[in-house]
Specification:
It is a single chain. The protein has a domain at 142-271: 3 Solenoid (UDP N-Acetylglucosamine Acyltransferase, domain 1), CATH 2.160.10.10. The protein contains one helix and 40 strands. The strands form three sheets. A 16-stranded mixed beta sheet has the order 1-2-3-4-5-8-11-14-17-20-23-26-29-32-35-38. A twelve-stranded parallel beta sheet has the order 6-9-12-15-18-21-24-27-30-33-36-39, with no helix packed on it. It has a twelve-stranded parallel beta sheet with strand order 7-10-13-16-19-22-25-28-31-34-37-40, with no helix packed on it.
């Protein structure tokens, strides 16, 4: 116990982990954040800790080790699992489930009926649309946006400022580069990579372990096979693929190439 300003005798912790580690018998605590005290109180007397300024709706389930920080909100029916952390000003939608060790930075938004699985991380300002599933150990960067009804696989990485449209699937260990734009209904298979500032339009499919370089523009409904390399050689010119292009597996397309609509390129090609 420690006395803080105002003479109150209360448990004081120095970091979020310290608060999460307190036994359930501790009903109130103060988290010292950059020298400023944040008052915490257990939700429903037995749940996790929430800051005084947090808004926790009725019907929320919180593990005793979960914590919701200042100005955050959690809507009815949401579930926060073991050691979950919800950052300042973040918002969790109705009936969403954050599994153990999930961590949200400040000002994150999670829509309705989402599932964010074990040890996933979402950095400040990121947004996840309704009914989207984020698999375990996934990393979502600052200000990244993921649309509704998406599926993001285990150990995927969505980098800062990237945007992913609705009903898209990002495979296990796939990477979406900083400020890349992924359209609606796009599929990135396991281990696929899209470089920074690339644009992948609606309905495209990118195969296993294929790499799309930086500043590549891909038109609607393109299909890229497995183990392809497109625009990754570092050339200064933008690589442009028209709509409905098909590129066979194990093909290489150099930076600056311009491929017209509906072109079909056979496997093992080099352009």
């Amino acid at each position: 116990m420690q006395t803080i300003s105002g003479g109150e005798n209360v448990t004081v912790v120095q970091d979020v982990f310290g608060a999460q580690s307190l036994g359930s018998e501790v009903k109130k605590a103060v988290l010292m954040h950059h020298g400023n005290p944040i008052r915490l109180e257990r939700v429903g007397g037995a749940g996790g800790f929430a800051a005084e300024s947090a808004k926790i709706s009725n019907g929320v389930s919180m593990d005793p080790t979960a914590i919701v920080l200042e100005g955050a909100s959690v809507k009815s029916g949401a579930r926060l699992g073991y050691m979950v952390e919800v950052g300042n000003g973040s918002a969790i939608g109705e009936r969403s489930h954050l599994y153990p060790y999930v961590k949200l930075g400040s000002a994150c938004v999670v829509g309705k009926e989402c599932s964010i699985f074990h040890s996933a991380r979402a950095a400040s300002g990121s947004a996840i649309g309704d009914k989207t599933n984020i698999s375990l150990n996934t990393s979502i960067g600052n200000n990244a946006k993921i649309g509704r009804w998406c599926r993001v696989g285990a150990m995927a990485e969505i980098k800062d400022g990237a945007e992913i449209g609705s009903r898209s699937t990002i495979g296990n260990s796939a990477v979406v580069g900083s400020y890349a734009r992924i359209g609606n209904g796009v599929r990135l298979d396991t281990g696929a990579m899209v470089g920074a500032s690339s644009v992948i339009k609606d309905g495209c499919e990118i195969g296993l372990h294929s790499e799309i370089g930086s500043r590549v523009s891909m038109g609607v409904k393109c299909r890229v096979g497995d183990e392809c390399r497109i625009g990754i050689d570092g050339g200064p010119a933008r690589t442009l693929l028209g709509g409905n292009v098909v590129i066979g597996s194990f093909s290489i397309v150099k930076s600056g190439a311009k491929i017209p609509n509906r072109k079909v390129i056979e496997e093992h090609a080099s352009l």
